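=== RUN LOG ===
request id: a7f3
mode: sequence -> structure
chains: 1
length: 90
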Amino acid sequence: MTAPAVRAPFDGGTLRARGRAVGTSPQPYWISYELDTTDGWVTRRLRVTAETASGIRALDLRHDGAGRWAADADGCVAVCPTPARRLTTA
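=== RESULT ===
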């Protein structure tokens, strides 16, 4: 069983979504997330926190606006030094 709740106000071409989900399978958990976009709906930041009886895990993804991403997962930071490229299909 999962019980989600979300708040996502739109402001022109941007979005600030905040949400939570509580579930019981495979074990009781609580997940919180925050998603921020820039103009044109480009993801700027995503933060996710998961809580269970075993502990708390967190992930923070940040986009610098030039195609590079940085990730902080439970205090371990990684940076993608080259801009990410979108795949296109012909």
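=== NOTES ===
Residues 2-79 form one domain.
DSSP finds no helices and eight strands in the chain.
=== END ===
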